Amino acid sequence: MVSNVLRKEGSNLRLVSSDGSGEELSGERPRMASAFDDTELLAAVRRGDTSAAAAFHDRVRPQVDRTVRRLLGRRDNDCEDIAQMAVVELISTIDAYRGECSLDTWTSTITAHLVYKHLRRRQTERRLFSNILDADELFVASPHRTGREAMARSAVKRVAHHLDKIDPNQAWTFLLHDTLGYDLREIAQITGVSVAAAQTRLIRGRRNLHERIAQDPSLANTFEEMERCR
Q1: Measured between alpha carbons, how far is 177 from 191 in angstroms, rounded to an integer?
Q2: What's the confidence (pLDDT) of residue 118?
Q3: What is the pLDDT of residues 93-142, one digit of tens each?
């Protein structure tokens, strides 16, 4: 069992394993499923096969749930409603899926777009990123690394606090790219902008966040202490 932490590397903050392996994690993006099985399933859904629709729901729902929980926060009361809306959206737009990426990636991107629109309508809610980057959701308890995990939790809370203070579009782009592993093309689709605009937001978001981190001595010290504990 490992815990995940945000590691400061160059211009990025990466979600990585804290088991000492340094393995980078891409949020909760699962492995690609069998292309043959997915192709047959999609063809059956497009033909209007009702039994295939049920199988399609079972196929995509775990990825939908992972994406919703990761972007909305596990404790958010809207998780179930958004997940159901995402499945409906996937079925209604299934003809738009051309197999240019895995079904898991397409599912995650469409779901993330719904979550993004939902949260844009909830802009009056404060501490958005503090809620999403809930430290308790990022870690698996380990009796052998309690000190490092405590520091990691503190660092994540501080990073979330700074994300809440910068431009929301820049913060979202940073979170989607550097923490959750979406590429710029996917982020452009999720947020409804061009790839160039997404790249600009990412660059500015990184710069603004790292400027804030540089002016936060307690956070900088935490990163240094975590590196010494590796």
Answers
A1: 12
A2: 86
A3: 999 998 889 999 999 999 999 998 888 776 555 556 666 665 444 444 44
CB 168 within 8 A of CB 123: yes
**81 within 8 A of 141, measured Cβ to Cβ:** no
- Number of other CB atoms surrounding residue 54 within 10 Å: 11
Nearest CA among 114, 119, 126 for reference residue 165 = 126
3-state SS, one letter per residue, for the chain: CCCEEEEEECCEEEEEECCCCCCECCCCCCCCCCHHHHHHHHHHHHCCCHHHHHHHHHHHHHHHHHHHHHHHCCCCCCHHHHHHHHHHHHHHCHHHCCCCCCHHHHHHHHHHHHHHHHHHCCCCCCCHHHHHCCHHHHCCCCCCCHHHHHHHHHHHHHHHHHHCCCCHHHHHHHHHHHHCCCCHHHHHHHHCCCHHHHHHHHHHHHHHHHHHHHCCHHHHHHHHHHHHCC
- Computed over its alpha carbons, how large is the radius of gyration of the chain? 19
Other residues' Cβ atoms within 10 Å of the Cβ of residue 18: 24
| Residue (of 115, 160, 166) closest to 134 by Cα position | 160
Which pLDDT does position 23 carry in this prediction?
43
Averaged pLDDT, 20-37: 45
Tokens of 214: 């540089």
Pull the structure tokens for residue 114. 């719904």
pLDDT exceeds 60 at position 18: no
**Cα 174 off chain centre by:** 10
